[in-house]
Specification:
40% of the residues lie in helices and 18% in strands. It is of the alpha+beta class and 174 residues long. The longest helix is centred in the middle third of the chain and has 14 residues.
């Protein structure tokens, strides 16, 4: 289960350039399979995914939507509460679906609890995500990489960044 694997996470505002965060993490050696992104249902990407239709008559719009969905599908997991989810990594699959009620995956604190968040933190982040925002979670097979991941999350605009190991807050407010 992922809750036993060292991990870093960052909470971002809605207008963050998600692609830039992912590119930064990938360039620093964090694989896409180790990244879980949880988007607010009000995030612009969520709107595109929600409104995606293979029956859309506009080829250009359909190609852009298909490209976005393909990109999201490359990560370990992407969860958009009330909209849907993409899970590529078996570790995320087991943490988010197998050991949990999969119906809870899209819009309940059990999603965050499956990643290892305490009940109190899961509820707090769920409330923040309900409004606007993005939570990026990076599973770090090596404990020493969690500090590097936190630093990268902070550099890319995380309003709050921490590790699940220590729950020590590191961020703009600190």
């Amino acid at each position: 289960m992922l809750s036993q694997t060292p991990a870093a996470y960052g909470m971002y505002p809605r207008d963050v350039a998600v692609h830039d965060i992912m590119h930064t993490l990938n360039e620093a050696g964090f694989g896409k399979e180790n990244i879980c992104m949880i988007l607010s249902p009000r995030h612009p990407i969520a709107t595109i995914v929600r409104e995606a239709s293979i029956l859309n008559g506009e080829r250009e719009a359909s190609a852009v939507t298909a490209g976005l969905i393909g990109w999201l599908s490359e990560f370990g997991a992407v969860v958009i509460p009330t909209v849907g989810f993409f899970i590529r990594s078996q570790a995320f699959f087991h943490a988010l679906v197998v050991s949990r009620d999969s119906a809870a995956l899209c819009g309940h604190t059990r999603t965050l609890a499956g990643l290892g968040f305490s009940d109190q933190d899961a509820e707090r982040y769920e409330n923040q995500l309900r409004e606007v925002g993005v939570l990026v979670y990076v599973s770090c097979p090596e404990t020493t990489k969690t500090n590097w991941a936190i630093e990268l999350l902070r550099r890319t605009g995380a309003e709050e960044a921490a590790t699940l190991e220590t729950e020590a807050m590191v961020g703009a407010a600190a």
